[in-house]
């Protein structure tokens, strides 16, 4: 029996599962939240215990790993995590290969999720597709000729940091008007809060205020969608602006890369029809008329990184 | 002797040359301007006479063709020309294969020039590069793993129509603030003219006006660079804005595609140091700090499409 071990270092959660080569069902599955104050060391310790629980004395034939942060795929070294301390230059592939003695492949979560959707989800049968996750950040993964395309230094697909409005607000990366700065959940929440803190406002944000009992620090990306669904005009405005930014980004990617399909995943994609319509409309307007593409929701949900890790491990076995 | 025939349908000029497989020198070379009122029919007739002059009774082993307009590479059918009438849906590959009985490959000029620079020019030894031509239009050609990447429908690489300033002026394509709308020669000339036609101006455009004896209709892209070199502030402003737009476009491409090298060709790249510095600076600021790339001038000059056509024909022979 050829076993594949799939690991997901997700930043706020850790998950691991095993499956048989070619199967679409998990044999065993473990998941837990990262503790408060987690470090690379505690993450690795927790993951080791999940793995030994899963394996029950058996040996996998290959390991695939999804990591929530930039990874040097060639060496399998994590560059850093934006969520957990101590991940700078950790040779994750090397550590796992030493401990378990089997070929291990490590890649960042957007690339892995893209591969998962390609092999098992909304991208099946399409050999050129672009996956975008819109959540705490905006990341992209790109499948070309059936395999992840990582670019010269593993940095391809960074749709989150293409500039769509040079007059827009400043992003963490230092530039103005990046897709991530306008479309990610936390930044939409921040924009709502800053707007409501200003003395005189056009929009009252009534529904949004009531969701957080007027404690503006509690506003989240999800509340923006919830308030928008209740008709809150400020929330609608911010949500549409985020969807517009993502749509311009997708249209520009269509012009440059011309993939067959875009697949969107991540929490913000659950924001509802208004958001989806604006993304579709803006992407279509931004792309040249000769360029065909479809934009679809991801099919694998929260298990996308694990299924992607399975696909990654299988590629390593071929 | 294995002969390669290279053809260049350039819009305003026609050129053809033959070389031996593996050689870097032309055996024979023919070039002429398209007549005023040229059509697809006259272009094809002139090209046929150039070809028969070149061949002198010999038979080539393969034909490579660079066409100045969108081409369906798979079928070798020209979609249209923006410069010459009557090119809609002309099966150029089929016509040439019927007449000369040898394998023929046809692609658009940016893809072909990219391939030429990759094989024989500034991109030698780099298997992932992005070529940009900045001239009457702005086009892109993209080499991935040593071969042109054309995207799902041959539309990849359209850097000219990615939006860099959504509040900018309207482009021919219908969108606002495309790279081409801000960075191409004719559009820079148009912006200068429109500025000088306004009643009250901050910049006098003195040097630019004197280059055309106050006949604003005569302003060209080249004159913008010439006037800028003479210190004309309006010209400097427009040139810098064009270079900025191209720099944002290149930085965005770096974020998405992460190629090793960008190679810039076309008449606007002769605009001087000011232009190059602004392009380099803006591209560097727009790309994420982790992303490495270089931006270099094209090496093959006016013969890039012909040498690219040789490379294209050779790929067809392999």
Highlighted features:
318 residues; homodimer; Nucleotidyltransferase, domain 5; 2 domains; 12 strands; alpha/beta; 19% strand; 5-stranded mixed beta sheet
Helix content of chain A: 25-40%
* Low-pLDDT residue spans of chain A: none
CATH fold assignment of the largest domain in chain A:
Nucleotidyltransferase, domain 5
Question: What is the gyration radius of chain A calculated from CA atoms?
Answer: 20 Å
Main structural class of chain A:
alpha/beta
Q: Strand arrangement, largest sheet of chain A?
A: 3-2-1-4-7
Task: Indicate the CATH architecture of the largest domain in chain A.
Answer: 2-Layer Sandwich
Q: Tell me how many strands of chain A there are.
A: 12
What can you see in these coordinates?
Two copies of one chain form a homodimer. With 318 residues, chain A is of the alpha/beta class. Chain A folds into two domains: 3-118 and 302-317, Nucleotidyltransferase, domain 5, CATH 3.30.420.40; 124-298, 2-Layer Sandwich (Nucleotidyltransferase, domain 5), CATH 3.30.420. In chain A, 39% of the residues lie in helices and 19% in strands. Chain A has ten helices and twelve strands. The first copy, chain A, has helices at 40-55, 92-100, 109-120, 179-183, 185-197, 206-211, 221-229, 233-257, 273-286, 304-317; strands at 3-9, 13-20, 28-33, 62-67, 71-72, 77-78, 104-108, 128-134, 138-144, 147-148, 261-265, 294-297. The first copy, chain A, has a five-stranded mixed beta sheet. In chain A, α7 packs across α8. Chain A starts with a strand and ends with a helix. At the A-B interface, α8 of A face α8 of B.
């Amino acid at each position: 029996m050829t076993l594949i071990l799939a690991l997901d270092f997700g930043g706020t959660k850790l998950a691991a599962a095993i499956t048989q080569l070619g199967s679409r069902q998990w044999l065993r599955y473990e998941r837990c939240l990262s503790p408060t104050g987690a470090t690379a060391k505690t993450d690795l310790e927790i993951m080791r215990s999940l793995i030994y629980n899963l394996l029950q004395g058996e040996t996998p034939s290959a390991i695939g790993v999804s990591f929530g942060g930039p990874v040097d795929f060639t060496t399998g070294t994590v560059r850093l995590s934006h969520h957990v301390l101590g991940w700078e230059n950790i040779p994750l592939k090397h550590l796992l290969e030493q401990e378990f003695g089997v070929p291990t492949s490590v890649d960042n979560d957007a690339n892995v999720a893209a591969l998962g959707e390609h092999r098992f989800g909304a991208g099946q049968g399409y050999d050129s597709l672009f996956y975008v996750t819109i959540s705490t950040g905006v990341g992209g993964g790109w499948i070309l000729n059936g395999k992840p395309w990582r670019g010269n230094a593993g940095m391809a697909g960074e749709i989150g940091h293409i500039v769509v409005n040079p007059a827009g607000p400043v992003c963490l990366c230092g530039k103005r008007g990046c897709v991530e700065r306008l479309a990610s959940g936390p930044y939409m929440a921040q924009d709502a809060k800053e707007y409501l803190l200003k003395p005189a406002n056009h929009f009252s944000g009534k529904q949004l205020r009531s969701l957080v009992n007027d404690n503006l620090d509690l506003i989240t990306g999800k509340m923006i969608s919830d308030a928008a669904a209740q008709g809150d005009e400020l929330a609608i405005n911010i949500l549409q602006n985020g969807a517009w930014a993502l749509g311009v980004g997708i249209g520009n990617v269509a012009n440059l890369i011309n993939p067959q399909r875009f697949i969107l995943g991540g929490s913000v994609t659950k924001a509802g029809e208004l958001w989806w319509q604006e993304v579709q409309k803006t992407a279509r307007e931004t792309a040249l008329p000769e360029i065909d593409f479809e934009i679809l929701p991801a099919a694998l949900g929260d298990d996308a990184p694990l299924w992607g890790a399975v696909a990654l491990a299988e590629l390593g076995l071929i």
